[in-house]
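Minutes, project check-in
Item: structure for the 245-residue chain
Input as provided by the requester:
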Amino acid sequence: MLLATMGGAAACGSAATTGCSQYWQSAAGQYVIENNNFRDQSECIARIGDSGFRVTISGAAAEQGSGQPAAYPEIYTGYHWGTQAGTAFPARLSSLSYARSSWSVGTARAQPDSAYDVSYDLWVNKGRQVAASGQPDGAEVMIWLTERAVPAPAPGTPTVAVDGVRYYRIEYARHERGVSWPLIIYRRVVPVTAVRDLGLLGFVADAAAQHQLSMSWYLESVEAGFEIWRGGTGLDSRSFALSAG
């Protein structure tokens, strides 16, 4: 997914509980909730409680043939295009002994014609912190928990077990803003809408074993949200938590 282009050195707060601007943000403790509507189509999200949000309006429609979603409403922690949320990241991967997350979403009320995936997005940079206007240059690791109306993995796509759970491993080469990086997607073979204490470093270690990244690089941020290809109204991120050290 594309990163939002934001400025500022600290997490942006918003007194509003609903936002419809392209990159509306609301600070939520060590997290930030963000619209992240890269195609700038009609979209509003409402903050729910301390760490939840709901897509209340979405006219998202991905550009045909682009291979990119239209929006990624999300919650994140770490350094994200000039905004710092929390203190856990950036952190050198080799210095982390754990990074665990619990996340619960609701999809039953999504509009019927929606196409989306429910995914974590981990951004890795070769240095400690990318410039505010820059693209992370290390790697992007996505973990898809579930999806709807998106193409199935191609025949022969390899699977890998991470902490006893099987995922399809799908690799792409990405290039944006003059920077190239690998995108590694771990797509659950058996989809779920909630995880508890999901170990994120197991996915990073597998990507490192595939020579897609180095453990001497830095985990810049951890994001969790909905890659929306079409529709999306009614998608609900109910709760989110992350601990690392």
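Outcome recorded: Residues 66 and 229 are 11 Å apart (CA to CA).
No further action items on this chain.
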